[in-house]
Specification:
Number of domains of chain B: 1
Helix content of chain B: 10-25%
CATH topology of chain B: Folate-binding fold
Number of helices of chain A: 29
Distance between the termini of chain A: 41 Å
CATH class of chain B: Alpha Beta
Structural class of chain A: alpha+beta
CATH superfamily of the largest domain in chain A: Probable tRNA modification gtpase trme, domain 1
Strand content of chain B: 35-45%
Radius of gyration of chain A: 37 Å
CATH topology of the largest domain in chain A: Gyrase A, domain 2
CATH architecture of the largest domain in chain A: 2-Layer Sandwich
Oligomer: heterodimer
Structural class of chain B: mainly beta
Number of strands of chain A: 62
Radius of gyration of chain B: 14 Å
Low-confidence stretches of chain B: none
Low-confidence stretches of chain A: 967-1034
Distance between the termini of chain B: 26 Å
Largest sheet of chain B: 4 strands, antiparallel
Chain lengths: 1210, 90
C-alpha cells in the first residue's frame, strides 16, 4: 500500500522509517512520527468507527485528544488490550494492531445500523419513555438489549499484565501544555531558578507551532525555535511529553498520566506502562490551548467531514492530504488558511462556504485570487454519501458541490477544563462569544489560547511573564493574527444535525428536551446526555449551549456552562491502581512464628492485614478434625499459640493507674504490682470498644493488651483523651505490639512444660492473673499467667526477633507431653467453651458491658470513667436489651450459623429476638455450642427458642454463656482468667529490659562516627548507628533490583528506645545517654554511634548499637524523679537504608512528601506514610535515607521500593 | 488531597492525618450531674456547619498530635490550625 494521500515532503514524519500496522486485519504502512489516525488518513481510510447509538459510519473529526469518533481497540497481545483509545493519540509503531469498535460484523456492513431506522424511538430520554411496560422487562430484556446495541469497545477479560506506578512530585511551577504559551512560560519560570515541570499530552512539544511552517519567532523558524526552547529547558526542567493533566485536586495537586511505553514496539519490560503523577505545584500555568468547534448542519457527521484546523495539522505536521476535493465550511477566518494551504498542497478546494454575510475581505480576496470560489452568507444544508461524504448541498438546496471531504470551522473554544476544575469562576466574553477564565480560586494563571489570546506574539510574551521571567518581546512573523468568531447560530433543529458526536445527540434532541420543559443546562445535559460521553463534550459543549440558548430565547451567559470534572481524557484503571495490586495491594503482615507455621503446613486466615495460622492440619485432616485435635490437646495437655498480633501498649507515668481508671471500666490504680486485671474499654457512648488484660509492671508502668484489630484504634483513643481531655495527667503511651513476640501456652501441663525453661522465678509463685519479669533461655521475658481458654496457661512476651527461638524451646520441652500448636480457629472454640467474649464477634458497637454479663468489670466506686454516664441513659437500662446467652441445639451434631436469627415461634416466623454471635463444634463437649445476643436473654435461660436455618427451623435450649467449668479437665484448679485479683503480689518485678541479654546476636562492632569524637551533637552529617548485614532469613528482604542508581540495604539489629517526656526531662535523659534529644521538630541528631530522632513534641526514637541495654537503665535512672517514659522497642522496627541518585525518586513513588533537599534537608526525620505503611524517614545524606518501619510492615516497604527501582535495574 | 498545616510539622499531605470530629465540645466536668438530654447532646448533637467550622484532626502518621483546624465546609479550605488548649483564632 502506497499511502496515496501522503504529501511528498511536508510534515514531521520520518519517511525513511516505514512502519507496518493493521487496522481491522488489513495491513497498511505509515511512518515513524505518525499517529494511527494520520497513517489511516494517508492510506485514504476515513471510515473508522460506528456511532454510539445509531451506528452511523464515522470518520476522524479532529487531530487531537478532542476526537469523538475515532475510538479504536489496540491489542498488544498477551492480554494487553486497551479499548476506546483515540486514534489521534495512538502513536504508530511497527506491528501495531488496531481494530474498530461498536460494529458487527464489520465497519462497512454493520447490522447495528438498523438502529438508525429506529432513530425516532431513540430520541433523548427514549429509554425512560419507550421501555416502561411491563416493569419487569427492564432488567431482563430492555436494559441488556440496549447495552448490547449501544456502546464503546469491549473491556478485556484477562488480567492486565502491565505494570503501573504512581509518582509524587513537587514543584514551584507546573506548566500544563507545551505549545507556544506553555514553552514561553516554562522558559520564564526556568529563568527564575524555580523548580519547573512542563507536561504535554502529545508526543512532541510545540503544540500549534508544529503545524506552522511559515511562522518565525525571533527569526527562527517556529519548529526550530521549539527545538531550541526544549533543549534549553531540558537542562533544568522536568519535561513530560505524552503526559495528560487530567484532574485538579485541592491545594494545587494536579493529576497527570504519563504514557511511558505505549508508543514503543518493544517496550522495556521493567518500565511501567503508565505513570500517574501527583504533582503538588505552588503555582500552575495553564496553557492548554483551544479546541475548534464543528459546524452544526444536517448530516455533518459523515466520514470525510473534519475540523478545518485539524486538516492543517494533518498537512503540515503529518504530511497528509485529506482528500482530492474539499469543501470548506466556516464561520471563522482560520478556515481560509486551511483552504489556501491545502490548495497549495494540490488539493482542489471546491468552495468556501462562509455563514457570515461579510467575511474578512483580504481573506476572501486571497482565496479568490487562488481560484477558490467563496460563498458568503451560505451554509451547508446537508451532505450526501454513505461511507464517505460525496457532496455538500448548500442552503437554498439547489447548489450541489461534489467533494470527498468537508472541512469545517465553527470558531475556537478555549480549553478551560482545568481552570474550571480548580474552582475558578468562568466569565463569558461577549467579544469572542466564549467562556474565559475569570476569578481564580487556586494559585494558577491561564495563558495563550485557553485564556482567549490568539496572537502568537502575545501568547509568547504572556507566557514568559506568567512564568516569572518578566517582560520579554518575541518577534513573530509569517503567521496572520486572526480574530476568532462567535459561536455560529444554530439552524433549525434537525434529527441528523449532530452536536455531540460521541453520544449521538442532535439539535432535535436538544429541542425535544426544551420542549419537554427542561430549562437548566444541567438538566438538559442529563436528559439528553449531551457532553456526557468519554470526550466530555470537548467539541460539543458550546454548540449545545448555543443551541439551547437559541431555543429558549436566552443568552449564553444566562444559560451558563455545565461543570467540568476530572478526568480531562479517560484514565486507565491500571494507572489509578498503580502498584496497589497483587502482592502490593495491601501490606501482608506476618507474625514472628509465621515461617515456622508455614513450614508446619498451617492454613492461614486474614485478620485485618495480618496473616494468622488458622489451624495446623496433620496428614489429610480437614479443618474440623484439625481443630478438634488441637482443642483436645489444650484441654488434656498443652497447646501453643502465636498470640503476637495482640495489641500491646506500655502506659508509663506517675498517673498511669489513674489514667487507666478513667479509660477502662475497672480500677487499676489499686492493682498490685505484678498482678493483672481484665479491662473493658468503652467509648463515651457506653458501647464496648475493646478489651484485654492489663498487667502492672511497676507503680508507674502498665502493660496493656488490646485485641489484634484494636491495636491502633485503642492507642488513638487513649492519645485523644491524654492530649485533649486529661491535661492534668502525666502519662505517656508507647506501642510495643511489634516489639514482643507472644507465645501462649495453654493447658493443664503448661506449668510443667515451662518450669524447666524459666529462670529467676518459680512458677508456683505466680497466681493466675499475674505477671513477672524473668528470663527464658537467658532472654529477658515478661511472663503472664493468663488464660483465654479457661485452662491454666501462660503468655510469654519476648523480643520478637527471639520469639522463634523460645517457641522452638517450648515445643521441644513439651514434646513428651504432646504439646500441640493451635491456630485461631481452636482459639475461638476454646474461649467460647469458657464463655469468653471476643470484641467484634459478641459486640457490634451497640453492646454495653451488662449486655455481655460484664457488669462485674465496672469499678462501682469510681465516680467517672469514659462511657460511665452513658450506661445510665434510658436505653441502656431498659427491659429487652440484648443479653449474652448460650445456645445448645437439640441435635448435638448441628452447628448453628453465625448471624442466624433467634425467634420464639416454632415455624421460625415472628419478630427476631437476637442473633447467634459465635457457633462452633466443641470436641471436649462432644457437641455444638453457640453464643447469642438475645433480648432479655438472661431471663430466658432454661427455656428454649428457635433458629431458622437454611434447612429448617432448629430448636435450641437457652443456657448460661459458659459451657465448660474452669479446670474441669485441667485439674489444676486454675480459676478462670477473669475475676478478682489477690492483693498479694509476688514482689515487684524488675523491668525485663533492664538486664542485658545474654543471648547475643552477631557480634556488632560499634560504628565509628565520622566526626572528631567530641560530644557535641552533630546534626545529620554522621552515619546512623546501625550497620548493614544480611537480613534474618524470616525477613524476606531480598530481591532488590541491582542498579547503579539506587540501592537498598536491610540494616542489622539495633537497640531502640522510645523516650516520651517533657523537653526538660528529655534534656536530662539525653545527657545521660550521650545524645541530645532536641526540641526542634523533625530533626534527627547524631552523636557518636547514637542518634535521637524527634518524632513528636514529647517523643524521641533513640537508636544505638545492639546490646547496649544499659541505655535503658541509664535513661530511666537519668529521669529520676522527673516524670518520663522510656520503653525498649528494639525489636519493634527494622531499618532499611536506601541510597543513590534515584533513592528519593523511589521513595516518592509511594511517599507523598517533598524530598527535595530544600524541603527535606539532611538531618530531617519524620513519621510519614510509604504506600500503606507508616515509616520513619530520615535523611542522612543528599542521596541517603534511613527508614524505620515496624517489623511486620518491613517486607511490604522493601517490596514497594524494589518495585519502584525495577525500571532502573541494570 | 489537602495540604494540612500541622502546628508542629508544617504542611503535610492529608493522608498523614485522621479527622476527629467537631472541636470545642467540652466533656462535662461532672458527667453524673448532667441530664440525659444534655448528655445525649454532648454525645451526638453536632452543628453540621455550612461554612467555617472548627474541627479536630490528628497528625496520626506524623507527630501524633491532636490539633484543631478552622475549615470551610463549602470550599474545603483550611484557614488556620492551632493546638488543642488554644482558643480558636478570630
Amino acid at each position: 500500500m502506497t499511502q496515496p494521500f501522503r504529501t511528498h515532503d511536508t510534515g514531521r514524519i520520518h519517511r525513511d522509517q516505514p512502519l507496518r500496522f493493521t487496522f481491522d486485519g488489513r495491513t497498511l504502512t505509515g511512518f515513524a512520527g505518525d499517529t494511527l489516525a494520520s497513517a489511516l488518513l494517508a492510506n485514504d481510510v476515513h471510515l473508522v468507527g460506528r456511532s454510539f447509538k445509531y451506528h452511523r459510519p464515522r470518520g476522524i473529526l479532529a487531530a487531537g485528544s478532542e476526537e469523538p469518533n475515532a475510538l479504536v481497540t489496540i491489542d498488544r497481545g498477551g492480554g494487553r488490550i486497551t479499548p476506546n483509545l483515540r486514534a489521534t493519540q495512538v502513536e504508530l509503531y511497527d506491528g501495531l494492531r488496531a481494530t474498530s469498535q461498536n460494529r458487527f460484523p464489520s465497519l462497512s456492513f454493520d447490522l447495528g445500523a438498523a438502529a438508525g431506522w429506529a432513530a425516532p424511538l431513540l430520541s433523548a430520554g427514549f429509554y425512560y419513555k419507550t421501555f416502561m411496560w411491563p416493569p419487569s422487562f427492564w432488567a431482563r430484556l430492555y436494559e441488556p438489549a440496549i447495552r448490547a446495541a449501544a456502546g464503546l469497545g469491549r473491556a478485556p477479560t484477562e488480567a492486565d499484565p502491565d505494570r503501573y506506578l504512581h509518582q509524587y512530585a513537587h514543584c514551584d511551577v507546573l506548566v500544563i501544555g507545551a505549545g507556544p504559551a506553555g514553552l514561553a512560560a516554562a522558559l520564564g519560570a526556568m529563568a527564575t531558578g524555580a523548580r519547573v515541570i512542563l507536561c504535554d499530552e502529545q508526543a512532541e512539544f510545540g503544540g500549534s507551532l508544529l503545524a506552522e511552517p511559515a511562522a518565525t519567532i525571533d527569526q527562527w523558524p517556529a519548529a526550530a525555535w521549539v527545538v531550541e526552547a526544549v533543549s534549553t529547558l531540558a537542562t533544568s526542567v522536568t519535561l513530560l511529553p505524552r503526559t495528560t493533566a487530567f484532574g485538579w485536586y485541592p491545594d494545587n495537586l494536579i493529576g497527570l498520566v504519563e504514557r511511558v511505553t505505549d508508543h514503543l514496539a518493544d517496550p522495556n519490560p521493567h518500565a511501567p506502562r503508565e505513570r500517574l503523577w501527583q504533582v503538588r505545584a505552588r503555582h500552575v500555568i495553564i496553557a492548554t490551548g483551544a479546541i475548534e468547534r464543528p459546524l452544526v448542519f444536517p448530516h455533518n457527521d459523515r466520514p470525510g467531514i473534519m475540523l478545518s484546523g485539524s486538516a492543517r495539522t494533518w498537512l503540515h505536521r503529518y504530511g497528509v492530504r485529506l482528500g482530492a476535493r474539499s469543501v470548506v465550511a466556516t464561520n471563522d477566518d482560520s478556515a481560509y488558511l486551511t483552504a489556501l494551504d491545502l490548495h497549495h498542497a494540490g488539493v482542489a478546494i471546491a468552495g468556501i462556504v462562509d455563514t457570515r454575510p461579510d467575511p474578512t475581505e483580504d481573506l476572501v480576496e486571497a482565496a479568490r485570487s487562488a481560484g477558490i470560489s467563496v460563498h458568503p452568507g451560505q451554509t451547508i444544508a446537508r451532505t450526501e454519501g454513505r461511507m464517505r461524504v460525496h457532496s455538500a448541498i448548500l442552503s437554498g438546496g439547489t447548489q450541489v458541490i461534489p467533494c470527498d471531504s468537508v472541512l469545517m470551522s465553527g470558531g475556537w473554544t478555549p480549553s478551560v477544563h482545568l481552570f474550571s476544575q480548580s474552582r475558578g469562576k468562568l466569565r463569558f466574553d461577549p467579544a469572542t462569544g466564549v467562556f474565559l477564565p475569570g476569578e481564580s480560586a487556586a494559585q494558577e494563571v491561564s495563558v495563550g489560547a485557553c485564556a482567549g489570546v490568539f496572537d502568537l506574539s502575545v501568547c509568547l510574551s504572556d507566557g514568559y511573564a506568567a512564568g516569572g521571567g518578566g517582560v520579554r518581546h518575541f518577534a513573530v512573523d509569517g503567521i496572520p493574527t486572526l480574530a476568532p468568531s462567535l459561536v455560529a447560530a444554530p439552524g433549525t433543529p434537525h434529527p441528523k444535525a449532530f452536536v455531540d458526536f460521541q453520544n449521538d445527540i442532535t439539535t432535535a434532541d436538544l429541542a425535544l428536551a426544551t420542549r419537554e420543559g427542561f430549562r437548566s443546562i444541567e438538566h438538559v445535559k442529563r436528559y439528553t446526555t449531551t457532553g456526557m460521553a468519554t470526550d466530555q463534550g470537548k467539541t460539543s459543549n458550546l454548540n449545545a449551549l448555543a443551541t439551547v440558548a437559541g431555543l429558549l430565547g436566552a443568552t449564553m451567559p444566562e444559560i451558563g456552562l455545565t461543570t467540568f470534572r476530572p478526568p480531562y481524557t479517560p484514565v486507565t484503571f491500571g494507572s489509578l491502581a498503580g502498584a496497589s495490586r497483587g502482592a502490593l495491594f495491601d501490606p501482608v503482615r506476618c507474625a514472628p512464628m509465621h515461617d515456622w507455621a508455614m513450614a508446619r503446613g498451617a492454613v492461614f486466615e486474614d485478620v485485618g492485614t495480618w496473616k494468622r495460622a488458622r489451624f495446623f492440619p496433620l496428614g489429610r485432616e480437614d479443618m474440623h478434625a484439625a481443630v478438634a485435635r488441637e482443642c483436645l490437646a489444650v484441654r488434656r495437655s498443652a497447646g501453643l499459640f502465636d498470640a503476637s498480633t495482640l495489641g500491646k501498649i506500655e502506659v508509663v507515668g506517675p498517673d498511669a493507674g489513674i489514667f487507666l481508671d478513667r479509660l477502662y471500666t475497672g480500677t487499676f490504680s489499686r492493682l498490685a504490682v505484678g498482678r493483672c486485671r481484665y479491662g473493658v474499654l468503652l467509648g463515651e457512648d457506653g458501647f464496648i470498644r475493646d478489651d484485654g488484660v492489663i498487667g502492672r509492671l511497676a507503680e508507674d508502668r502498665f502493660h496493656v493488651t488490646t485485641t489484634t484489630g484494636g491495636a491502633a484504634s485503642v492507642l488513638h483513643h487513649m492519645e485523644d483523651y491524654l492530649q485533649t481531655e486529661f491535661f492534668d495527667l502525666q502519662v505517656w503511651l508507647t506501642s510495643t505490639t511489634e516489639h514482643f513476640g507472644v507465645i501462649a501456652i495453654q493447658g493443664p501441663r503448661s506449668a510443667t512444660i515451662l518450669a524447666g525453661l524459666v529462670e529467676g522465678i518459680a512458677l508456683s509463685d505466680m497466681p493466675p492473673m499475674s505477671v513477672q519479669s524473668c528470663r527464658i533461655l537467658g532472654l529477658p521475658a515478661r511472663l503472664f499467667r493468663v488464660s483465654f481458654t479457661g485452662a491454666d496457661g501462660f503468655e510469654i512476651n519476648v523480643p520478637a526477633g527471639d520469639a522463634q527461638t523460645v517457641w522452638d524451646a517450648v515445643m521441644a520441652a513439651g514434646e513428651r507431653y504432646g504439646i500441640t500448636p493451635y491456630g485461631t480457629e481452636a482459639m475461638h472454640v476454646l474461649r467460647a467453651e469458657a464463655g469468653f467474649i471476643i470484641v467484634g464477634q459478641e459486640t457490634d458497637g451497640t453492646v454495653i458491658p451488662d449486655d455481655l454479663g460484664l457488669g462485674w468489670t465496672i469499678g462501682k466506686a469510681k465516680p467517672d470513667f469514659v462511657g460511665k454516664r452513658s450506661l445510665t441513659r434510658p436505653d441502656m437500662v431498659r427491659d429487652g436489651r440484648p443479653q449474652l446467652v448460650g445456645l445448645l441445639t437439640k441435635d448435638p451434631a448441628l452447628v448453628l450459623e453465625e448471624g442466624a436469627q433467634i425467634v420464639t415461634l416454632t415455624d421460625g416466623a415472628g419478630p427476631s429476638l437476637g442473633h447467634v454471635t459465635s457457633s462452633y463444634h466443641s470436641a471436649i463437649l462432644g457437641r455444638s455450642i453457640a453464643l447469642a445476643l438475645v433480648a432479655d436473654g438472661r431471663a430466658r435461660i432454661g427455656g428454649s427458642a428457635f433458629v431458622p436455618m437454611p434447612d429448617g427451623v432448629v430448636e435450641v435450649a437457652v443456657v448460661r454463656p459458659k459451657f465448660l467449668e474452669a479446670g474441669a479437665e485441667a485439674n489444676t484448679g486454675a480459676p478462670p482468667a477473669i475475676g478478682s485479683v489477690s492483693a498479694a503480689a509476688a514482689g515487684r518485678p524488675r523491668l525485663a529490659e533492664a538486664t542485658p541479654r545474654t543471648m547475643s546476636r552477631e557480634a556488632t562492632p560499634a560504628v565509628a562516627a565520622d566526626h572528631d569524637g567530641s560530644d557535641v551533637p552533630n546534626v545529620g552529617t554522621s552515619r546512623p548507628p546501625v550497620r548493614s548485614a544480611e537480613p534474618r532469613p524470616s525477613m524476606k528482604l531480598s530481591g532488590f533490583p541491582a542498579s547503579p542508581d539506587v540501592h537498598a540495604t536491610a540494616l542489622a539489629p539495633t537497640s531502640r528506645l522510645i523516650v516520651r517526656a517533657s523537653n526538660a526531662a528529655a534534656t536530662a535523659i539525653g545527657a545521660s545517654i550521650g545524645v541530645m534529644l532536641g526540641s526542634v521538630p523533625c530533626r534527627g541528631i547524631v552523636s557518636r554511634d547514637r542518634a535521637a530522632l524527634w518524632l513528636g513534641p514529647d517523643e524521641w526514637l533513640v537508636l544505638a548499637p545492639e546490646a547496649e541495654f544499659s541505655l535503658l537503665e541509664q535513661a530511666i535512672a537519668a529521669a529520676g524523679d522527673i516524670p518520663a517514659s522510656v520503653v525498649d522497642v528494639s525489636d519493634r522496627n527494622h531499618s532499611i537504608e536506601i541510597t543513590g541518585s534515584r533513592a528519593a525518586w523511589c521513595l516518592n513513588t509511594f511517599c507523598a512528601l517533598d524530598l527535595d533537599p530544600t524541603a527535606f534537608p539532611i538531618g530531617m526525620c519524620t513519621r510519614t506514610l510509604l504506600g500503606k505503611a507508616e515509616i520513619v524517614l530520615w535523611r542522612l545524606g543528599a542521596e541517603t535515607f534511613h527508614i524505620e518501619v515496624a517489623r511486620s510492615f518491613a517486607p511490604y516497604v522493601w517490596d514497594c521500593l524494589a518495585e519502584a527501582a525495577r525500571e532502573f535495574g541494570s | 488531597m489537602l495540604l494540612i498545616p500541622c502546628p508542629w510539622c508544617g504542611k503535610r499531605p492529608e493522608n498523614e492525618f485522621h479527622h476527629a470530629g467537631q472541636a470545642h465540645i467540652a466533656r462535662p466536668e461532672d458527667p453524673s450531674a448532667t441530664t440525659d438530654e444534655a448528655w445525649a447532646d454532648f454525645l451526638y448533637i453536632r452543628t453540621n456547619t455550612k461554612g467555617r467550622l472548627a474541627e479536630r484532626w490528628r497528625h496520626q502518621h506524623g507527630c501524633g498530635r491532636f490539633f484543631n483546624a478552622i475549615r470551610d465546609s463549602v470550599t474545603d479550605r483550611i484557614a488556620a490550625t492551632y493546638k488543642p488548649n488554644e482558643p480558636p483564632p478570630a
